[in-house]
Design a protein that fits this description.
single chain; 0% strand
Amino acid sequence: MDSGEERAPELRTLQQKVEYMVEKTFPGQKISGRVFADLVKERGGSLSHSYFSNILAGKVTQPSEDILKALGLGFGVDWRFFKEESEVVDDVVAGLQFLAKRRTGEISGLAGRGLDEDGLPPELLQFALSLLEEARGRRSTADGDGSTAHGEPEK
């Protein structure tokens, strides 16, 4: 039952969320606590490199709101993503999936009218991703090459 969409990972703990954001924000790079702390500082926040390293190690599980805001600054996402029962986790994951498809050229452009400073709503991002998957499926069927939407041979 693979629809071709990247399944949203289960992000329950702060450590899981930060690891996910490191992977998606800095793909293929090893980001040290010091580099991340410097990035937060450049963006107007404050976070010690050792505290960030402790978060990644799972030693910090319930930081203050100020720390969550610093994480948000460093990753460029809404700080509430890092809260325990976050309502924005799915929104951030959808946004990252959209950006990844934009980077790979699967989505070349998008125009929105009447957008505010928050940008595209998550529902629109999900809709755009679903349209992309439908188009990929139609293209694969039309090609009739015996491959799936992912280019893998059908079994």
